[in-house]
């Protein structure tokens, strides 16, 4: 029997559940969050996360305020964070805050911040 992989590193991608978006729109916003948060991480963290398989978790937040609170907590913990604001070219008004990317970072550190959020 193959042992379960252990992921010491991950990225948390958080979408607002109070903004009406199609599934495709949500995916695009989370992809933006993933790329920008990754770019803000340090080189060593990026490599460790990449080498381990780039685990990502998609989660839901209930409001814009919650996204900003999570971002602040993450940044205070030294975790890269990226708030995504939509350009408004398709489904939602310009300037709408849609998503937050956190990490990559240690899974245990992200769990302390996002552990109460529901999976998308």
Automatic annotation (TrEMBL):
Enzyme type, top EC level: hydrolase
GO molecular function ontology, one term from the record: peptidyl-tRNA hydrolase activity
Superkingdom of this protein's organism: Archaea
Keyword Cytoplasm tagged: no
Matching SUPFAM superfamilies: Peptidyl-tRNA hydrolase II
Keyword Hydrolase: yes
E.C. designation(s): 3.1.1.29
UniProt-listed InterPro entries: Pep_tRNA_hydro_II_dom_sf, PTH2
Key words, A-Z: Hydrolase
CDD domains: PTH2
GO cellular component term, pick one: cytosol
Gene3D superfamilies assigned: Bit1
Pfam family of the protein (one): PTH2
Reactions this protein catalyses: an N-acyl-L-alpha-aminoacyl-tRNA + H2O = an N-acyl-L-amino acid + a tRNA + H(+)
UniProt family annotation: Belongs to the PTH2 family.
Function: The natural substrate for this enzyme may be peptidyl-tRNAs which drop off the ribosome during protein synthesis.
PANTHER family in the cross-refs: PEPTIDYL-TRNA HYDROLASE 2, PEPTIDYL-TRNA HYDROLASE 2, MITOCHONDRIAL
Protein name: Peptidyl-tRNA hydrolase
Native organism: Methanoplanus endosymbiosus
